[in-house]
Every structure is written in structure tokens, then in C-alpha cells.
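Render this sequence as a predicted structure.
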Amino acid sequence: MAFVEERVRQIERAYAYLLQDVLVLRLTEETLKLVLVLNDGMTLRVVERWQARKLVRYSYYWLDAAGNLKIGWDNYPHHKHVGGQEIRLPSDETCLEDVMAILEKEKSD
């Protein structure tokens, strides 16, 4: 579990200024499942699956403070849901770092 534990610590360090809390829901040798509680009350639900330190599966779901979906990103194929599960668009954001850049941009606007 050392790699996924280090990944959680990396996320906590890199985004500490955006985060109120990091809730660890599940960690295995290859998978992490987290809820990142943002300073503004929104959350980002994070699921990553790693094999040989390569990200092979992900989902990132950004929810507003009321629990409504803002944007959700998934792979197979890379896509995002905007404002609801029924709206599916192609996505260039393919890792947590890409998604966090979107969140950071919204915070600065």
C-alpha cells in the first residue's frame, strides 16, 4: 500500500491551500478512494486505480455544497459529465492534476 499512501500524502501537500479535509474511504495496494472537502464546501470524489505506478482507471466527481454534480470525469473513453450524468462530453482532463487545475481556475475567476 506504500504507493497509494504516498499518493494521498502528495495530494494533501499539493492542494492543502484548497482543502478543508481529505476523507480516506478506501485504500488498497492499487486503488484509492477519497473525498476532498474543498474550502468552499464543495467536494471532489476521487477514485484512482494504479498498476505499476501507472494510472489505469479514474473517476473524479466535483459536487457543489448541496451535493449536485458540477462536472464528473471518467475514463474508458476519457469523458466528462457536465451538470448531470446524461450530458457526456469528450475530455482532455485525464488525471487529478488536470482536474485540480480546472478547480483552481474557477477559484481564481
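Summary. The chain has a mean pLDDT of 94. The longest strand covers residues 54-63.
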